Amino acid sequence: MKKRNPQGINIRKARVHDIPKLLEIENACFDYDKLSRRNFHWMIKKAHSIFMVLQYDARLAGYGLVLINSGTSLARLYSIAILKEFQGMGLASKLIKELEERSALDEDCAYLRLEVKEDNKSAIRLYERLGYTKFTEKDDYYDDGKTAYCYEKRIRTLTKPQRLNIPYHGQGTEFTCGASSLMMAIKTFNPDFDMGLSHELQIWREATTIFMTQGHGGCGPHGLALSAWRRGYQVEMFLSRSEVLFLNTVRSEEKKKIIELVHRDFEKKIAETNIKVMKKKLTLKDLKEVLNKGGIPIILITTYHFDHNRAPHWVVVTAYEDHFVYIHDPDQYQNSDYAGVISRVHIPIPEDQFVKISRWGKDRLSAAVVVYSE
Length: 374
Hints:
Layout: E1 9-13, H1 19-29, H2 37-45, E2 49-56, E3 59-68, E4 74-82, H3 91-107, E5 111-117, H4 121-129, E6 133-138, E7 148-154, H5 177-189, H6 197-207, H7 221-230, E8 234-239, H8 253-271, E9 276-278, H9 284-292, E10 296-302, H10 304-307, E11 312-321, E12 324-328, E13 347-350, H11 351-357, E14 367-372
């Protein structure tokens, strides 16, 4: 059958009155994970997104939806669909290129990422033809147990960074980000390292110093440094303050006394090791130097610029180049049903934004634990 010449193509922003047609496209193109009327309405009106529809001779033939990661330079191709009768005419390529351009120019994004089922050969061929490269996989990602292949493309002209090959590990609980981050560092040096939840909780028990105003405590830099050292690794710790940390997270005087006792005990134990304690904040210059030496930095950040949550949170730095710092974020409990694994792996953050998020609390505490091989 002779294919029609793709003329009369119009790519524009999605509007609320497109929703009935978008639902028809969704139901025709997908058998699982379908967007609902409510989902479409939210994506058009409230989401930080780029939502485009493609018209062919005035008929709605498909759509493309990109979600923007707040506080980062990362965009995610969340969904793309072209009706079967319009496939094979290069429309998906045109739509993706439009989304790339808008993500780069309108949202200042450096990367566009996507997930695709391992057996979706036609989509994989399309993405690879458009310059996307696979950077990781996620086993058992879809409802049917299939693996997700994660692809990315630089949509701004930048030098490709030499990232550390750090395996990603999502935290198993809402309070073990520090333990999970340390496990990623250790797994890099020891591929046989046990990444199970029991080990994660063991490290958390070793490293916890913090009482929060509610819920479980979290890991402090002293505890993480000792946990890494006990497992045979060389460790450096950067701290902008020498006082007892995190006291302003609690109101109870009894809890404050306990925090201080634990803190002093950790300091005493660290003094008996060869852990290097730098009484300064980790600067961008320091960050580049430790990465060049083969160290894996675990950084305390505030996620306020991402989700308006002021709780302290640990992440792993995987690269620093082209004015971007890249991180693995172990948080699997983000307040979004639309956050996929590619939104947490090698996240590109502009260096000025990274400086802002790597200070926590009113006193702007800067804390980092750098792990080196044995």
